[in-house]
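User: Can you model how NDP sits in this protein?
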Amino acid sequence: MTHTEGMLRDGALENKTIIVTGGGTGLGKSMAGYFLRLGANVVICSRKADVLANTADELRQSTGGRITFVACDVRKTEEVEQVIARAIETFGRVDGLVNNSAGNFISPTERLSYKAVDTIVDIVLRGTYYFTLALGKYWIENQIKGTVLNIVTTYATTGSGWVVPSAMAKAGVLTMTKSLAFEWARHGIRLNAIAPGPFPTKGAWDRLFPEELARKFSFENRIPLARTGDHQELANLAAYLISNFSAYMTGEVITLDGGEVLSAGQFNFLKEVTDDQWDAIEDQIKSATRTGKTPE
Ligand SMILES: CCC/C=C/C(=O)SCCNC(=O)CCNC(=O)[C@H](O)C(C)(C)COP(=O)([O-])OP(=O)([O-])OC[C@H]1O[C@@H](n2cnc3c(N)ncnc32)[C@H](O)[C@@H]1OP(=O)([O-])[O-]
Ligand SMILES: NC(=O)C1=CN([C@@H]2O[C@H](COP(=O)(O)OP(=O)(O)OC[C@H]3O[C@@H](n4cnc5c(N)ncnc54)[C@H](OP(=O)(O)O)[C@@H]3O)[C@@H](O)[C@H]2O)C=CC1
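Assistant: Here's the modeled complex, given as structure tokens:
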């Protein structure tokens, strides 16, 4: 067994219809593909119909699963409602939602126009709450115990410079996840989130790790587990969180980042200390303890 293999048993998502926003590319496409392999019906949506059509064809062929697509800008409520209506028309009902669509790019914040900030916040936060609200109403009215999975980021909790609109919006999504998990638990609706570290995708790499930066700040040095994530690792966790296996979990955010977020640990700079230096340090500490004095 390796981390690049599917984890759940065959049929784990049978009889479930799952909407994956931004499912035409990157992590959304990988999650959609794995959900299909596990027996789910999948609806992917995003702005680019041609990209969605190609992905739907590819995944239909590679998995033999049932997939359809609807072009949709998640910032437009009528289009969000159309996706849900089409999903119900095609598959009879909707059971799960993965809020995965996002917009993001690195920039010094003072260089951003109002519109640039609005663009990111609207896709990430507004898009997520539009979809969640529309489906939540449908689930409550039809007594369906739906499940939401929100793809956030580790900096939704820590904050981060140079991606401030994304950080603000993802933090809002995280707070919505926890707030609604409590409120809608009485309807059997669950909401959880994944905070991924770096997983190579064209969308993220073009906008966040342009070649020059990627070379300078290599992931191998920054990430304790010294690598980026594999899409299947994220798809495994996503499938678990959207499946009935996680039935007792709600309002949770799971970090999947090779330990990247832990780098703030106060003493982590000790990573640079060699074994010989440790011998000397140990002697100094023991001597100070014996004499009660700290050496000059
Ligand atoms: C690993 C870490 C975590 C990863 C998290 C992720 O989310 S990864 C996921 C990553 N995946 C994605 O992000 C996928 C989707 N992303 C996209 O489609 C685009 O990147 C988008 C988000 C800009 C939206 O495009 P659109 O066609 O809807 O919008 P538009 O072109 O009309 O621009 C709107 C405003 O933004 C301005 N502006 C734009 N770029 C820059 C810049 N570099 N500098 C400064 N400003 C910039 C632009 O000038 C305009 O403002 P203005 O001048 O009118 O006042
Ligand atoms: N890759 C990584 O390292 C990390 C990614 N993430 C998160 O993972 C998720 C997927 O990102 P990733 O796969 O890397 O990047 P992608 O760029 O491949 O995915 C973003 C998707 O969002 C869609 N999208 C953008 N704007 C809209 C819109 N207005 N309406 C509907 N859909 C829209 C895009 O499709 P289209 O252009 O057709 O609209 C695209 O399919 C995002 O939520 C991201 O924040 C979080 C941490 C790390």
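A couple of observations from the model: The longest strand covers residues 190-196. Residues 136 and 168 are 23 Å apart (CA to CA).
User: Helpful, thanks.
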